[in-house]
Design brief:
The strands form 3 sheets. Strands 1-2-3-4-5-6-7-8 form an 8-stranded mixed β-sheet, with no helix packed on it. A 6-stranded mixed β-sheet has the order 9-10-11-12-13-14, with helices on one face. The chain is built from 8 helices and 17 strands. Helix 7 crosses helix 8. Helices cover about 30% and strands about 25% of the residues. The chain is globular and about 65 Å long. By secondary structure, it is of the alpha+beta class. The protein has helices at about 60-65, 100, 105-110, 115-125, 195-205, 225-250, 260-265, 275-295; strands spanning about 5-10, 15-20, 25, 40-45, 50, 70, 90-95, 140, 145, 150-155, 165-170, 175-180, 215, 225, 255, 300, 305-310. The structure holds zinc ion. Zinc ion (ZN) binds near residues 74, 76, 161 and 180.
Length: about 300
């Protein structure tokens, strides 16, 4: 079996693919930057499946050949944007995220946006990300194995980013698909109603213990070879959580309301202009505040106003 990674220009548009044995990484447009992303095609002797078909897959559908199943690491708009290209194949998501693909209302509950942001983003999800409800989508569970003939894929539940976020380990190629544990400089994203900071932290610890040779992400990074390189990036990625918390404690030297915390920005940069910035800052930093209050590092001086203790 070929275990070396080969890179090649895949088509006239200069689109890149990386090949590791039976695994083809379809590198997304814009270097995999949102709204694009990297998808994986896994072609065993008997079955072929695609993981997280992104917007970038749409122009390449004809080249992919037969696809027997679609696996989504979780139910976010950018990861399911190409699902509609495979209407005859069964679609699979972890049971905890499964409701999201079954109806648009459920999908919107994952984000938890309110009012105008909900209605605007609902339209974006349908028109720009081709959201297609699939009531008969099937459930994945931690430990499920797909045998594709010569290549096997194992499901690893890794919640935090969403409730049902999963990794996939493919053997014998020894590729660990990390989905949105994307090792980016943005850091871990836990800003949705269905995200959990503390689950994400547990997941980051768990992922550090998984042995693999290749580590593939949905955004930016693409493929990292070797555990040492992976662990170094993972550590930098995970450290962003502590940085946000330190900056928050610093900001709370004087009492602040949640609105002030949201306006200050701890997740996005001041120049980032996305419609859901405020909702994501609120959800993310509220989780930090809650756990700091529980641990005694922060006190609520008036209803909704917080101060760091002992400073
Ligand atoms: Zn995501």
């Amino acid at each position: 079996m070929k275990t070396e990674m080969t890179g090649s220009t895949h088509d006239g548009n200069g689109t890149q693919v990386l090949t590791i044995g039976n695994v083809t990484v379809l590198l997304g447009d814009l270097s995999g930057r949102y709204p694009h992303g990297n998808s994986l095609l896994v072609a065993g002797a008997e079955e072929r499946l695609i993981i997280d078909p992104s917007l970038s897959v749409i122009s390449r559908r004809a080249e992919l050949g037969r696809v027997d199943r679609v696996l989504n690491s979780h139910c976010h708009e950018d990861h399911i944007a190409g699902n509609h290209l495979f209407p005859d194949a069964p679609w699979y998501l972890h049971e905890a995220d499964l409701p999201g693909i079954q109806s648009l209302d459920n999908m919107m509950a994952i984000y938890g946006y309110l009012g105008a942001i909900d209605s605007t983003f609902r339209q974006v999800v349908v028109e720009q990300f081709h959201y297609t409800p699939r009531p008969d989508a099937r459930a994945l569970h931690d430990g499920d194995v797909f045998d594709l003939g010569g290549t096997r894929l194992r499901v690893i539940h890794a919640p935090g980013h969403t409730r049902g976020h999963c990794l996939f380990h493919i053997e014998p190629e020894d590729v660990l698909y990390l989905a949105d544990i994307d090792l980016s400089s943005f850091g871990p994203y836990y800003g949705d109603a269905w995200s959990s900071l503390e689950d994400f932290e547990r997941t980051l610890k768990q992922v550090a213990g998984i042995e693999a040779r290749w580590f593939a992400t949905f955004h930016h990074v693409g493929v990292v070879e070797g555990r040492a390189a992976f662990l170094e990036r993972l550590e930098r990625f995970a450290a962003i959580i502590a940085t946000r918390e330190r900056r928050l404690l610093d900001f709370l030297r004087t009492p602040r309301s949640v609105d002030e915390i949201v306006a200050h920005r701890f997740v996005f940069r001041p120049q980032d202009q996305v419609m859901f910035v405020e909702a994501v800052e609120r959800r993310s930093m509220q989780q930090h505040i809650e756990r700091l209050v529980r641990a005694g590092g922060v006190a609520e001086v008036d209803p909704g106003r917080y101060i760091a203790r002992g400073q």
